[in-house]
Design brief:
The complex is a heterodimer. Chain A is of the alpha+beta class. Chain A has four domains: 63-195 and 553-607, f41 fragment of flagellin, N-terminal domain (Up-down Bundle); 215-316, no CATH class; 330-416, Alpha-Beta Plaits (2-Layer Sandwich), CATH 3.30.70; 432-540, no CATH class. Helix content of chain A is 39%, strand content 18%. Chain A is built from 13 helices and 29 strands. Chain A has a four-stranded antiparallel beta sheet. In chain A, strands 16-15-20-29 form a four-stranded antiparallel beta sheet. The longest helix of chain B is centred in the first third of the chain and has 61 residues, at 131-191. Chain B is of the alpha+beta class. Chain B starts with a helix and ends with a helix. Chain B folds into three domains: 2-69 and 530-566, no CATH class; 72-313 and 465-528, no CATH class; 319-430, Immunoglobulin-like, CATH 2.60.40. The chains are: A alpha+beta, B alpha+beta. The interface between A and B is large, with 78 and 85 residues.
């Protein structure tokens, strides 16, 4: 832009003319230079101050484009990962279809022990092939390792005669610019069923709070956690607010509220947390009234279970329900736990004892299970009130029972054959317990000749079976007790060591102590108690509720072993299970495919957005060359005109005409 | 009536014309002197003589005065405009420098470095144990730290240049005031209350105009010709005397402060415009603001990244580690300002995990950080003692220079941390990603640079996990209370926008100030400037008048000769 000429010039001076010319030239040249830079860089905005109003938009677009570059890389990585995962799942499916074909082909008269033995070798090869596929990686990340997928090493390895999964059950995720991160790999549990969570503790261990329990580890009196803030305290009519925003622990809350009461009236009462109680304790001296409540919009007093008034008494607050953490002390569990017995854990042919006798915290229990190195993981369950024991080893059977007459497994809710165990989970959940509706299922005969029949109708759990047996025995006039009780006639319960039902006949006589099946019912067999002890006193049932990881590996191992041992029933059984594996793989593959589609859609969308953002940025920053060039030409002419007229004006003077 | 008196009339014409020609000549000589105000020779008749009843004839002409053509009100307005323009120009100059230091809208700016840093964590999340990506994260962290440090140092350098400029300008102001005081005296002496010392006045006006370029002044001329000068309501030149001017440099809480004062009584001057006024403002508000914003961003970024990093785990744990941040008095509560931590921990707790590598046995201990001001609060000494007393296979101690040092009992044990609600680990620099607490000292922890396996990309001791990398990447867009509810990238963008608006406004204002100054200068030049053509006409006119008077004398002379010829 050129200079603005002065208006209403009454008189000019030589200096004024020179100044005006100089100013006009400066402005024209400055504008010319700006246009030259525009044309040489193709941009009109080089610095934020060139377009302050557009700075925010330019910054935003540049930031988005920089983020998008990374999202595009993440999408590319996810696309590759999911693509390779899809291929791997397809490969496993093909192998399983082959294996299932082999299983079908080896049933019936067309096959014999020799051909089955040779086919077992093929299945073994297929098992190795599936392991190789399951251990595949993309760009160094395991396809089926879940959250642990970034770890070096293999996710599936041979272990105790089976296949152990070393990955996690959640997936690795990446950021692609969506509200939620995108999961980029799969995990052994989803794809191959490589983890069993059957022994997920049902027991609520009822942890009690401790002084150092963090408020963030409380479910709170309302089950909504503890929402921090201030509470309103009134002591004998004197009011104050107590700020608990920065309180970290249960102990902090007690100290601060007690201090606030004392500050108003040291004789009015007190507020405390007493170890062993489920909440806070509130005391008002005779003649005193203490009231705690939430201010408007506050929730902390209710969450802490102390929204209450106390007069001349000591009153407990509501339970504040701490969650179980690794730091929870076992002595702080309201639910009694026998730690002296430990767990008898059998994995395949190996039995080890988990010794919890010196354990003090949940972390110690976890450490002991890890120390056993049996492919088991002890974790706090989702409700944060109990424990779950996960089995990561396929192809072997796992049993978690009591040790030496203790009740540790039952108390921790970790017994694989406990009163809460579902009959449907018997025999690996395949057959459960076969009964005949409306008819008695088995008979228990005692040595003294008495007997009673047990009808299993309506029984769902092991506890129901025990109750049915007890009721039937009582109805038959038999005095019953728990195992180990010498005073009763018949003891009915679970094994004191290991797993299974245990029946003890304390009667005498010439008869046989036996459990016999009735009619078409296989219940006694399926419960593991169909046994004739003869003159013996004890029927120790078999553990028919062992835990088995129902995975691709388990079924291949079983098929291999059934073929090798010429076990036609086993071959049929394994073949049938593979049907489920193939369906599961199809589901996972579909889910991976959906994620792959999502990635493809986002890649497409990202490319569009990229073009849009570049275009918007171009509109904001780039020079309009037509405008720049025409303006440049105008300015050149303007400069020329200014120079010509200016020099002429300065050169011409009256003095030139004086002689 | 006599011929002699006629000769006197001719003489007066010759002398007046000669003087007027000299005035025109002087004007022509000063035609390009910007401080010069044109002068006008004022001629007046010398009175009349009665030559007959009721008949009068003039006695000739005389030079009554030579006046300086000046509009004092216009001069004052011009000085104000110059003051405004100089101030705006100085501010614009330093805002431009800050903008140039930030270098935004390029690929080498802080916004890009921040995004590259967070992108590197996002990339690491894809392959959490890939050492090349871990190396990338560390390299990007170092680049970011070094870039922020360079930015900050450049701002310091610019501030030092500005300080030098203030000192230099202050010296020139003092010098001008000395000269003005001397000129005041000279003018009084030369004029003795009658005016006419035009050159001295022009010089004084020139100096006042130059002074107005440094500070905004108001002037009051006394009857004796002395000029008093004020800044705001404070006189700096009073009754012709210089009250003195100085630039004071004081260090307050380690920060250099610069202010302008009257020497005579120490009154602080706060010029609203002029170069000095603008420099003081640019120092305090523009450069100071940029430094503060950069420092705040670095502070929060270091803290937030470190808080997440300390709670994660790497591909290996630590058998020994030392906090990177010093505590000045290890017996004081950790949140006491005298403890000297760059970050203030709060009341809370954290977990220490000690894992035996050979057995995978892990013990976890909750460490309270009691900083609620009730009872004894946690000091560094207390924290170290508590850890040593309560965590098996781990010893904590305070080093001689006030850092927390932890050491496991053997190489078979590793220590890790999690769930720090107090922020004490980040404050002490334990297992952090960054070291330092500000834009001056931000860097990546040295042992991370040496051992990439210590980079904490995972959580919950799960090898191969990427959740910590993911969480750190999430800082990019996470609103933070201490950044006014903005994320780090938004916070910096907002600063860049603010700076752009300020500079844009300064650019516009400078342009308008220039136009105002040019217009006023043109008005002044129009009124007070010399026009060569005009002076040439004057020259011609007075030359002709001179010639006329000379001819008149010649005629009188001839009349004399005629008369004498009669004798």
């Amino acid at each position: 832009m050129s200079g603005m000429p002065p208006s209403a010039i009454g008189r000019t001076s030589t200096l004024m003319k020179a100044d005006l010319l100089s100013s006009a030239l400066r402005k024209t040249q400055s504008e010319l230079m700006r246009r030259e830079i525009e044309m040489s860089t193709l941009m009109k905005v080089h610095r934020p101050s060139d377009a302050p109003a557009d700075t925010a938009n330019i910054q935003y677009l540049q930031g988005m484009m920089e983020k998008r570059r990374q999202w595009d890389r993440n999408l590319e990585h996810a696309s590759g990962m999911l693509g390779v995962t899809d291929v791997a799942l397809g490969d496993v499916t093909d192998i399983l279809l082959d294996a299932k074909g082999i299983a079908s082909g080896q049933i019936g008269v067309g096959s014999n022990a020799d051909t089955r033995l040779s086919q077992a070798a093929i299945i073994d090869g297929q098992l190795q092939a599936v392991m190789e596929i399951a251990n595949r990686k993309y760009a160094g990340v395991s396809l089926f390792g879940g959250l642990a997928g970034g770890r070096a090493g293999e996710m599936f390895e041979s272990f105790m005669g089976g296949v152990r999964y070393r990955g996690d059950t959640s997936n690795l995720a990446t950021q692609i610019g969506l509200n939620r991160p995108l999961e980029i790999n799969s995990n052994g549990m989803d794809a191959f069923g490589a983890v069993s969570a059957r022994v997920s503790g049902i027991a609520d261990l009822q942890p009690l709070p401790a002084a150092n329990t963090r408020l963030s580890d409380l479910d709170g009196a309302q089950g909504l956690g503890v929402r921090r803030g201030e509470i309103h305290l009134r002591v004998n009519g004197v009011e104050t607010m107590v700020d608990l925003t920065s309180a970290e622990t249960v102990g902090d809350v007690a100290v601060r509220i007690h201090a606030a009461i004392e500050a108003i009236d040291p004789t009015a009462g007190g507020f405390a947390f007493v170890p062993g109680q489920s909440g806070f304790s509130f005391t008002a001296s005779p003649g005193s009234l203490i009231r705690i409540e939430d201010p408007a919009g506050g929730r902390m007093a209710k969450d802490l279970g102390i929204d209450m008034a106390v007069s001349a008494t000591t009153a407990p607050g509501d339970p504040i329900n701490p969650r179980l953490t690794m730091l929870t002390r076992l002595s702080d569990l309201e639910h009694p736990v026998d730690l002296s017995g430990g767990l008898k854990i059998t994995v395949g042919a190996t039995t080890r004892i988990a010794d919890f006798s010196s354990a003090q915290t949940i972390q110690d229990l976890v450490n002991e299970i890890n120390r056993l190195d049996m492919g088991l993981r002890l974790e706090i369950n989702q409700a944060k009130r109990g424990l779950s024991l996960y089995t990561d080893v396929s192809g072997v059977e796992v049993s978690i029972g009591e040790n030496g007459g203790g009740t540790t497994a039952r108390d921790l809710g970790l017994r694989s054959f406990g009163e809460d165990t579902l009959l449907a989970d018997f025999q690996f959940g395949l057959r459960g317990v076969t009964r005949v509706q409306g008819e008695d299922d088995f008979r228990v005969e005692l040595k003294d000749g008495r007997a009673f029949e047990v009808n299993m109708d309506g029984a769902i759990t092991v506890g129901d079976v025990l109750e049915k047996m007890r009721q039937s025995a009582l109805a038959a006039g038999i005095a019953i007790g728990d195992p180990g009780n010498a005073a009763s006639e018949l003891n009915i319960g679970l094994a004191l060591d290991g797993n299974g039902f245990r029946l003890e006949d304390n009667t005498t006589g010439g008869g046989e102590f036996a459990v016999r099946t009735l009619g078409l019912s296989l219940a006694a067999v399926d419960l593991g108690i169909a046994h004739n002890a003869g003159s013996g006193d004890v029927i120790q049932g078999k553990d028919m509720a062992k835990v088995r990881v129902e995975s691709v590996f388990t079924h291949l191992i079983h098929l291999r072993d059934a073929l090798a041992t010429n076990d036609e029933r086993g071959i049929v059984f394994a073949g049938d299970r593979m049907e489920g594996d193939i369906e599961q793989l199809a589901r996972v593959r579909a889910e991976v495919g959906v994620r792959g589609q999502l990635v493809a859609q986002h890649q497409e969308r990202s490319a569009d957005l990229n073009v849009q953002e570049h275009s918007q940025l171009s509109l904001l920053r780039d020079a309009d060359m037509t405008e720049s060039i025409s303006r440049y030409m105008q300015l050149t002419q303007q400069l020329q005109a200014t120079m010509q007229t200016g020099s002429l004006g300065l050169q011409t003077s009256l003095l030139d005409f004086l002689r | 009536m006599g011929l002699t008196s006629s000769l006197m009339i001719g003489r007066s014409g010759l002398m007046s014309s000669q003087a007027a020609i000299e005035v025109a000549g002087n004007n022509l000589a000063n035609a390009t002197n910007p401080a010069y105000h044109r002068q006008v020779a004022n001629l007046t008749g010398m009175g009349v003589r009665e030559i007959g009843q009721g008949m009068f004839v003039g006695r000739g002409v005389q030079l009554e005065s030579i006046t300086r053509v000046i509009d004092e009100a216009l001069e004052r307005r011009l000085r104000n405009a110059i003051s405004d323009q100089a101030g705006t120009q100085a501010r614009q100059e330093y805002l431009q420098r800050i903008e140039a230091i930030h270098n935004e809208f390029t690929d080498v700016d802080l916004s890009s470095h921040l995004n590259q840093f967070f992108n590197s964590w996002s990339e690491l999340a894809n392959r959490p144990e890939d050492l090349s990506l871990r190396s990338l994260v560390v390299a990007e962290g170092m680049k970011l730290g070094a870039y922020i440090q360079r930015q900050y140092q450049s701002l310091i350098d610019t501030r030092e240049q500005l300080d030098a400029s203030i000192t230099q300008s202050g010296a020139r102001v003092a010098d001008i005031l000395d000269q003005l005081a001397a000129l005041n005296k000279s003018i009084v002496a030369a004029e003795s209350g009658r005016g006419g010392a035009h050159d001295l006045r022009d010089e004084r006006d020139r100096l006042m105009t130059e002074l107005a370029g440094y500070i905004d002044i108001t002037t009051v001329e006394q009857a004796n010709g002395v000029i008093d000068i004020h800044v705001g309501s404070t006189p700096i030149l009073l009754n012709g005397n210089n009250r003195g001017f100085e630039v004071r440099r004081e260090t307050i809480d380690g920060d250099l402060s610069i202010s302008l004062h009257i020497k005579a009584d120490g009154t602080e001057l706060r010029p609203a415009s002029g170069r000095l006024g603008a420099l003081i403002q640019a120092r305090e508000h523009d450069i100071g603001d940029a430094m503060e914003k950069l420092d705040k961003l670095a502070h929060e970024l270091i803290y937030e990244v470190n808080r997440i990093h300390t709670g994660g785990q790497g591909m290996q744990g630590h058998t020994s580690l030392t906090g990177t941040n010093r505590v000045l008095d290890t017996s004081l509560p950790l949140n006491d300002p005298e403890a000297g931590l760059g970050f203030e921990p709060t009341h809370g707790s954290f977990l220490i995990h000690v894992t035996q590598k050979s057995s995978s046995h892990r013990s976890t201990v909750q460490i309270p950080v009691d900083l609620d001001g009730i009872g004894a609060d946690t000091s560094l000494d207390g924290l170290a003692a508590y850890i040593t007393a309560n965590v098996d296979h781990l010893t904590a101690a305070v080093t001689s220079d006030g850092r927390l040092r932890m050491q496991t009992s053997s190489g078979d044990f590793e220590v890790s941390f999690s769930d720090d609600s107090s922020g004490v680990l980040a404050a002490l620099g334990v297992n952090t990603f960054f070291t330092g607490s500000s834009a001056r000292d931000m860097d990546v922890r040295a042992d991370l640079q040496g051992n990439l396996r210590l980079l904490n990309a995972g959580q919950e001791h799960l090898a191969g996990d990427n959740r910590n990398a993911f969480a750190i990447e999430g800082i990019r867009d996470r609103a933070m209370d201490r950044l006014d509810g903005l994320s780090v990238t938004q916070f910096w963008s907002r600063h860049v926008e603010d700076l752009a608006v300020k500079l844009g406004q300064a650019n516009q204002r400078l342009e308008s100030d220039r136009i105002v100054t040019e217009n006023l200068t043109n008005q002044r030049n129009s009124y007070s400037g010399v026009n060569i053509d005009e002076e040439a006409i004057n020259l011609l006119t007075f030359q002709r008048a001179y010639q006329g008077s000379a001819r008149f004398i010649s005629v009188i002379d001839e009349m004399f000769q005629t008369l004498l010829g009669l004798v």
